[in-house]
Amino acid sequence: MTARPLPPSRLSRLRQSDLWWSFTHHRGAMIAAALLFVLIFSAFTAPLYVPQNPFDPAQLDLLNAEYPPIWTEGGQWPYLLGTDTQGRDILSAILYGSRISILIGLASVFFALVVGIGTGLVAGYYGGLIENLLMRFGDILLSIPTILIAILVSAIVRELLPPSLREVGAGGVLVLAIVLSGWVQYARTVRAQTAVERSKEYVQAAQLLRVPARRIMFRHILPNTLTPILVAATLNFGMAILTEATLSFLGIGMPASQPSLGTLIRLGNQFLFSGMWWITVFPVLQLCLLVVAVNILGDWLRDALNPKLR
Questions:
Q1: Does residue 15 belong to any structural domain of this protein?
Q2: Fewest Cβ atoms closer than 10 Å to its Cβ: which of 48, 137, 292, 305?
């Protein structure tokens, strides 16, 4: 009696998929993925090898302030990219700041997905007055520039919080501001897909069998709407990082005691024309690399998942 062959593992199925073939034959996507992995890995493993914790004032020394990068005259080891006016190592600050920016970007996309998918499913499945109310509210938000919504929400919530909680809750305020301006795109996409799937036979059969509406929406309709949502989430991850950096640069984002990339750029911009160019330039380069890598992956994913281009 011959043994039944084992089913292929998920990894094997992934390596045999069209998506994997497209990825391995797209040089830009592979380079962007490798760069993004290096940036994220270095940010979250920074405490293992950087010379200081830039968030700990006890580790800052004014005697080590304003060192230029190590390859220029006056540079000092171990400050590879130099130090700022407070003696904060620029490389350490960039890696710690990148971790904050990445976490805020991921949290913003996740909660925007939850709100947008839930709203889009309800609007597309029930239609009628519910759909009109939800989508018109979304249209109102779309008519206001994203950065303006984020600024208004961030400023209002900060004023409502007591002073002792403003720095502690700065990350949460940023996530809330970005989510309120970012969930509409997911809701509109899911609503359109749900309205199409609602009229198909498998949904009508489930309704005849009295399957609960929640189960139909999340177990049957939602999987058929994930392709455009995945592409939008990837692209919006880079946009969320940029929005956080913009708010922090304007002074209503992360505080100077816990600087993100935007905060570092704002602090360094004050000394850009005094000769200490490295305080601003290197955080800007890190932000550009991070967003460009995400956008390249998003563009590749959009093309790879588009059935018209296969």
A1: no
A2: 48
State the average pLDDT over residues 22-50: 88
pLDDT bucket at 257, cuts 50 / 70 / 90 = confident
Report pLDDT digits (tens) over 232-244.
888 889 888 988 8
Instruction: Give per-residue pLDDT as tens, 58-84.
Output: 888 788 788 888 888 877 888 888 888
- How many C-beta atoms lie closer than 10 Å to residue 49's C-beta? 11
Residue 72 lies in a domain: no
Tokens of 161: 């919080």
Report the largest interatomic distance among the alpha carbons of the chain, rounded to a whole angstrom: 82
Single pTM value for the model: 0.85
Average pLDDT over residues 133-158: 81
Residue 221 has pLDDT above 90, yes or no: no
Q: What is the mean pLDDT of residues 118-131?
A: 86
Structural domains counted in the chain: 1
Contact at 8 Å (CB) between 190 and 121? yes
Q: Is residue 59 part of a domain?
A: no
Surface-to-core class of residue 256, CB atoms within 10 Å of its CB (0-12 exposed, 13-18 middle, 19+ buried): middle
Phi, then psi, of 89 in degrees rounded to 5: -65, 125
CATH of the domain at 221: 1.10.3720.10
Q: Is 9 part of any domain?
A: no
Task: State which residues form the domain around 267.
Answer: 20-50+77-309
